[in-house]
Design brief:
The structure holds 2 protein chains of 2 kinds. By secondary structure, chain A is of the alpha/beta class. Chain A contains 6 helices and 6 strands; from the N terminus they run E-E-H-E-H-E-H-E-H-E-H-H. The chains are: A alpha/beta, B alpha+beta. The interface between A and B is large, with 39 and 49 residues.
Chain lengths: 167, 572
């Protein structure tokens, strides 16, 4: 974005893509898909000491239809996987997914008959946050990475991603 | 006390008691399947063992009678407990204990799910932890640990037939004479709570049939966070199981660490050092405080009291900082070791604990001040979600939920380990067993935990934190790099694991939600043959649908919060 020097008081010039992405990245509405230990750390990240709202993502919505960022916090079992898929499908485009913690990212140290080995086997995932569980700072780092990613996206990036997924 | 009980059983049943054994103070009796109900009834009604605390399955593929089913019954007032073992062949049924205890329902379903042992006379023998499309039985020794099975779609808990029956029952309850309007099945609304609903605290699920806002029928489903702790434990060495215990009740991992270490030490017959015992008490009680803070804070949010959440989480954060400094992680601590601790307290820890305990006192006072006379809070909690004493015992409730009913059962008093008998503390109890009593008991318990920690800090003795026992504790690094014995010792302990003599023992302690126990079977090698966790949440959630039936759907959420079900421990 730049200030128009001829009319410094009245105009900003920018690209449409940048302006929209700027709005999108600083007003993420997360839906926590919390299942386990990571959800407790997510609660700590939202609450007063760490305060997620400093990064513009504090408006936690508990309906997938009102959210554009899904934070999968915790282990996803095979029993849980179809439900995760359904909830993701209920979110409107554009939408992003953060896998918080190693269980959501890869199954972690639960390599066994009950645990899905990473959520990217059922839904497209944008950011993987390491840690078991990640500290709130770790999650914020993941969020900042996601904001960078959103900033670089084209306007139809997530639609394209969706297209790639199905086709 | 338990010996006398076994003697009485022998007198009463004679040759029907096929065998009786005592190992490390735990008494087992073996009976034939046909006599198990009679023995359990005797224990319940005349032996003073009023609670069925757990049912344990074990698989011995080389034996003709392949499966052991072990009923663990205990008294709530005295250290009196006995394990009743039944051995059955593949496909042979064990008579169900559902008629005696309601807790038998879920415990037996778990054994059926994971081992495939049928229970004769069980009213609802379905899978409970694995999903309904799962094939085979996961805890059998021949089931591969990594063989996952995908699920195509979640299960519906109510069929049309169930809904019609519930409508009929609700009509009868409303109009016993048959006069007046009938409730039609289409009048009932099916509401599915969870497993991904934020108010369901993790991934719990309950499907409710509503008439207006009243719950006329409810069914609970668990297993959405089944991370196969028990199967993983069989695949790791005794020491490697420790980090897995962190993630059982992830709100109070220190307690899990300490109690697991106690259980294995009981099998090993190792006594930890005095300094270690006191530090374990301190971290356990800190953990209990953190757990209760999370529970009370989130429970009050369920009722719209967001301020309490800020107050409780602020202190929790302060406590977490101690835990983080102590072991490098806020939540998954992995601090205790079999035979000691991973390391001593950090310098200045005692003072920091004292300072932060003062913060806790303030926060508890603030929360009580805000809530105790608040009209909305009282309306939402007093008399809501109540469970009677008899039901609480029958369902196997322990911990704050049982104490809220007025039964002062606390493992720290009945079975003191870690010298808990030397500390001066009270066991807070409630009366009505409702949501209000549960919250108040938790708040009072935090104050008691603070008292315990203060006494522990005062008497903290000097000395080592680990036992001087090379077969259990890793040698110091200087020895590993400086001597061949040290290298070998380290190598053996890491690769082969601590060699635990063959036998079975049960170690338990007061977890944040009740009696947390590990029933460990060793075969003489470096890996557990079987570990069965006795999770306090499992029986509590078993009682959940019973508690919420007849109440309002909004109260179900507040009730659930006050029960403090932790999915990691519930599903393991």
């Amino acid at each position: 974005m730049a200030v128009d020097l001829a009319n410094p008081g009245n105009f900003l010039t920018t690209r449409l893509r940048q302006a929209i992405n700027w709005g999108r990245k600083y007003s993420l509405w997360p839906i926590p898909y919390g299942t386990a230990c990571c959800a407790i750390e997510f609660m700590a990240a939202v609450s007063s000491y760490h305060d997620l709202s400093r990064y513009g993502a504090e408006l936690v919505r508990f309906s997938p239809r009102q959210s554009d960022l899904m934070i999968v916090a915790g282990t996803i079992s095979y029993k849980q996987a179809p439900i995760l898929k359904t909830i993701y499908a209920q979110m409107c485009e554009p939408k992003w997914v953060v896998a918080m913690g190693v269980c959501a990212s890869s199954g972690g140290f639960y390599k066994n008959y009950g645990t899905l080995q990473g959520i990217d086997r059922v839904i497209p995932t944008d950011i993987y946050v390491a840690g078991c569980p990640p500290t709130p700072e770790n999650l914020f780092h993941g969020l900042l990475l996601l904001q960078d990613k959103i900033d670089r996206e084209g306007l139809v990036a997530s639609a394209q991603r969706h297209g790639e997924q199905t086709g | 006390m338990s010996e006398k009980l076994v003697q009485a059983l022998r007198q009463e049943f004679g040759a029907d008691i096929l065998a009786a054994s005592a190992y490390r103070g735990d008494h087992h009796v073996t009976v034939a399947p046909a006599r198990v109900t009679a023995v359990l009834r005797y224990l319940q009604q005349r032996g003073g063992c009023e609670m069925l605390a757990d049912v344990i399955g074990v698989d011995y593929p080389d034996r003709e009678q392949r499966f052991d089913v072990i009923y663990y019954v205990r008294s709530l007032s005295a250290p009196r407990q006995v394990w009743v073992r039944v051995s059955v062949r593949e496909g042979e049924a064990v008579p169900s204990a559902c008629a005696l205890w309601r807790s038998a329902d879920w415990h037996e379903r778990e054994v059926y799910d994971l081992f495939g042992v049928p229970f004769a006379g069980h009213p609802d023998l379905r899978r409970i932890l694995c999903h309904h499309e799962f094939e085979g039985h996961a805890l059998r020794k021949d089931y591969p640990v990594e063989l996952g099975q995908e699920l195509s779609a979640p299960e519906k808990l109510f069929s049309d037939h169930d809904i019609a029956r519930a409508a009929h029952r609700a009509s009868l309850a409303q109009n016993p004479t048959g006069a007046g309007d009938e409730i039609h099945p289409s009048d009932l609304l099916t509401v599915n709570l969870g497993p991904s609903h934020p108010a369901m605290h993790g991934c719990l699920r309950a499907e409710c049939l509503l008439d207006g806002e009243t719950i006329v029928e409810a069914r609970a489903e668990i297993g959405y966070l089944h991370r196969c702790f028990e199967k993983e434990a069989e695949d790791h060495t005794w020491a490697e199981v420790m980090p897995y215990t962190d993630r059982l009740n992830y709100c109070s991992p220190m307690l899990n660490n300490v109690i697991y270490a106690l259980a294995v030490e009981k099998l090993l017959h190792v006594e930890v050092t005095p300094r270690c015992r006191v530090i374990r008490v301190i971290v356990s009680e800190l953990s209990r405080i953190i757990d209760h803070l999370v529970c009370v804070g989130t429970n009050l949010v369920d009722m719209g009291a967001l301020t309490m959440y800020w107050y409780t989480f602020y202190v929790r954060e302060a406590m977490c900082q101690i835990i983080e400094k102590l072991c490098g992680s806020r939540l998954t601590t992995n601090y205790a070791r079999i035979g000691g601790l991973s390391h001593d307290l950090y310098p200045g820890c005692e003072d920091e604990v004292r300072t932060k305990l003062r913060m806790l006192e303030e926060a508890v006072r603030d929360v009580v001040k805000l809530a105790a006379r608040n009209r909305i809070f009282l309306d939402r909690t007093v008399g809501i979600g109540a469970i009677s004493r008899a039901d609480a015992v029958s369902y196997g409730l322990t911990g704050p939920c049982l104490r809220a009913c007025g039964i002062p059962y606390d493992v720290r008093k009945v079975h003191p380990t870690l010298d808990y008998q030397e500390y001066d503390f009270d066991v807070p109890t409630g009366e009505d067993g409702d949501t209000h009593a549960r919250i108040m008991v938790r708040l009072a318990e935090m104050v008691q935990s603070k008292r315990i920690i203060e006494q522990a800090l005062q008497k903290l003795p000097a000395g080592p934190v680990n036992v001087d026992e090379p077969r259990v504790i890793l040698p110091p690094k200087a020895k590993v790099y400086g001597s061949i014995e040290g290298v070998m010792n380290q190598f053996k302990l890491i690769y082969e694991g601590i060699q635990v003599p063959a036998g079975a023992a049960y170690g338990c302690g007061e977890g944040a939600n009740g009696e947390l126990g590990f029933y460990c079977i060793a075969d003489g090698g470096g890996r557990p043959y079987r570990i069965k966790v006795r999770p306090p949440c499992f029986p509590i959630y078993g009682a959940f649908t019973h508690i919420i039936k007849g109440g309002m759907v909004a109260d179900a959420i507040a009730t659930l919060g006050s029960l403090n079900i932790i999915a990691g421990e519930l599903d393991r």
